[in-house]
Each structure stands twice: as C-alpha cells, then as structure tokens.
Specification:
mainly alpha; 434 Repressor (Amino-terminal Domain); 2 domains; 9 helices; elongated
Amino acid sequence: MPFGNFSDISARIRQVRGTLKKSEFADALVIPRPNLSRYESGRTPPADVLQKIADYGGVTVKWLLTGKEEEKVAGELAKSGHPEPLLKESAPARPCEIQEFLLAEVLRAILKYVERDKLRYTPEYMTRLISLLYNHCARTLEPPSEALVVLYDIGPE
C-alpha cells in the first residue's frame, strides 16, 4: 500500500482509509471524527495519530509524511522483479492475523448483548460490529464486554 502518486499527506491518509467511511476510520483509529476531517483536509496529525494511521495501513510514518519509503524497501521490490515501487492492491488494510481467543470473547460479548435485548441485525451489520469491537480490543488490550458492545452499537444505518 505505501506506494502511489499521492502528492500530500491528506491524500495518503485517504489512501490508507480506502473505502471506509470517515466515521468508520476515525472509530477504528479511536480519534475524534472532526479531527480526521481536518487531517484529510491538510492538517498534519500529531505523532501518535500518525503512528495509528501507519499501523492501521501497514505503512510507515515516513511514507505518510513524505510519500517516500526507505531505500531498503524500494531495493527489495526491485530485486523481486518490479522495476519501480507499485501500489499493492492485494495488501490488506488491516492486520490479517486474527487471535482466535480474542475473537471468541468478542463473539460471546456480542451474542450475550444481542440475545439479552432480543436484537436482530443483518449479517453485514453484525460483521461491522464484530470488526469494530475486535479491532478496539486488539489495539487497547481491553477485554471485550457488553459495555463496549453498547459503545460500538450505533444501530444499523
């Protein structure tokens, strides 16, 4: 993902966000939504937010700031047969390694909440809720709970 013709930091942040809505991306980064809009409008995020965006997108802070990667990375791509760095379309925007025990705990918390309140959600919405809660717990090392489910359950759009 870190390569492409993006002239400024705001464009590179939008590239990392991909097809996610701004609100979803801000929630995934655990930053205020208005701040994300400011960053995508050209304001440079503070270091901790830059690191969150970089971690989320699998890029470096240097790339976010400058659009350039370390020479080592470019050299490795050249050795692999690519004459110049390419945008990797298949690279996942989120970490692809799921911790099964954490996923099981997230599912337990959500199912308990849904069954208790007799809620019905579409599979797409449940997937979004599971993803948001899982990512939050993985980032913060906070165990999943019904309170967190309530926090992330904004209802189907």
